[in-house]
Amino acid sequence: MFRGLVRATLRRPALESVNKGCTAHRNLAVSSAKCGKKMPDRPKPPPEEEFTEVFLKGSGPGGQKINKTSSAVQLKHIPTGLVLKVQSTRSRTQNRKLARQMLADRLEQQTKGAESRTAVVGEVKRKKKSSATKKSKRKYRLLEEAKEAAEAEAEGDGDRGAPSSEPAS
Predict the structure, then answer these.
(1) Measured CA angle at 119 (ends 116, 124), to 5 deg
(2) Cα–Cα distance measured from residue 54 to residue 139, given in angstroms and rounded to the nearest whole number
(3) pLDDT surpasses 50 at 152
(4) pTM of the complete model
(5) Residue ranges under compositional bias (Basic and acidic residues) (predicted)?
């Protein structure tokens, strides 16, 4: 009864078997610094003095609870005039956190442009999608070529194996 429990405690710790390379194991997280380019850090939200925060009543799906409570958050960045309204969840605190992070992302995108985190993440996603599309096209092209080759071979075999009407000499 206790044999399985004892065996589990006698196993080597998972950290002893960690490879130094870029191989990801089931329960071990591999940092992106080992595998490739490091993503830019998330931008910090601007200081409280730079924006105004207003809580509004929500709208849309969610029923009576959304319509009656002031859980939507509207942030206005005073120096740039950027206005942002967030109503992702029914929780005011979660919406506040999301709104501040989104404001920081938008401000970073305005200041850094193509070097911002959102631009880098978008470029990585675009490259992955392009690679997947290219791989898919290559796969179906090879399947089509193999199918055509099999059909051509079947037609060639059909001509040779057919009995001829002329007598054999």
Answers:
(1) 125
(2) 53
(3) yes
(4) 0.53
(5) 141-150
